[in-house]
TrEMBL record:
The lineage of its organism: unclassified sequences, metagenomes, ecological metagenomes. Pfam families: SBP_bac_1. It comes from marine metagenome. This is Uncharacterized protein. PANTHER family: ARABINOSE-BINDING PROTEIN-RELATED, DIACETYLCHITOBIOSE BINDING PROTEIN DASA.
Amino acid sequence: MKILKKILIVVASTILFFPWIVSSAYALECNTPILDSSSDEVKAYYIPENKYAGQSINVPTNQENNVQKACRIKFEELSGAKVIMIPYPKQKDMLDAINLAIATNSGEFDAMTSGAGGAKEYGLGGHLNPLPEPPDRDDFYTGDYDQYSIGGELYGIPTVTDTNLLYWRSDLFEEAGLDPTKPPQTYTELTEYAKLLTIDKNGKRSTEEGFDKNNIEIYGFGFKGEASLASPWEWYNYLFAFGGDVFDSEYNVAIDSPESIASLQWVVDNYRVHNIYPADTPVYDYGAFHTLFIQGKMAMAVNWPYMYGMSQDPEQSKVVGKVEIGRKPMQERYAGNLGGWSYGVLKMSKKQELAEAFAKWNGNPDQASMEALIRGNAPARKSITELMVKEKPIVAGAIAKNLPDTMGVKWLDAGPSWMALEKETWKLIQYALVGEKTPEQALKDAKVEMEKILKRDRFHEELVPLLLGN
């Protein structure tokens, strides 16, 4: 309790002047009340020794936020080292620079931050060194920790994570005779709710005689159907919940399993049979999707937490005070995909010990608490989620309900084949949505193309043994 009070005092004084902090990162201090009260083993893992005076490491970045900057400065104070952040305008520019440094073995960079895709691709490619297992590993969410691991070894320490939430309009629930405190518990039930919540311009519900499906005013649900990462990364929530996955336990493509087919059939039926999605769903990206919701034209949605803040902003939203968020429904199980970021150590580094110390420092619980309480990022740690729920019960409460259900997207385990597999995934979703193929045929055809990609890239010969720890 004393630790909690210390954290809240620091955070409360910081949040009070939040607009000023954004413009001046130096106003923020990286205090360590959690680490100060932790075991010696935990302290030794995260807190660097003060023995690196005169040394420096180079870390590429395309964005260093105020929390990261404050904690970098704290690391420099503790270690005596200098961390030189090398900025790039875009993430692609940063990755291009890292790839060039790897190709030329320049030793230019020492550590890097990346999502799960980067940690897996660079780790499987032999460009990252594994990190020692944290003594407080159990404090990290299993799905999040696993998405940065290869063959049981950690290649990126989790810093922040992310998960999708269920959004629903409490006012529309009440108007339809639904209890706004009881959202749908299964995806089958969600479809039934959505049919009741879909209303045409004459005020008729889709369940009523005379409903005009060509003139819908409010859609019961939505889907980001654009041919981009937007569509598969929404579909994975349903795929996992229906009991499917992209690979089986031996890394054979399982995209056409009965569970996978059922999950895609559910999406397609919502669009083509039940008319609870907008007509132009196949071109919906994140922007079109969240705009429809915050303008009051969608009754329920599955999306990342960022949309809640938008929905409560009177400058852009028509649904302020009318939105609830919570746990996504189940079907065969509660499950959903996740995002996140981690820090890893590049093998090219000539200062491995210092680079590792910096990577581990970025995973410490105090920095995680600041990312959560000050910046609103979903914490990678269970203990910080509990703390966040006390301070921000609505958003953090919803995040806390969903994070234990999360699973990593195993396409990321395919390393350099990852994006090619994602493209085949969004293509199959497109084929099914527009009716060019049935969901089953789209999945079976995609499996053939995916197996060709994996064979071309020697996935089973070169990477699967590493993933399975053989």
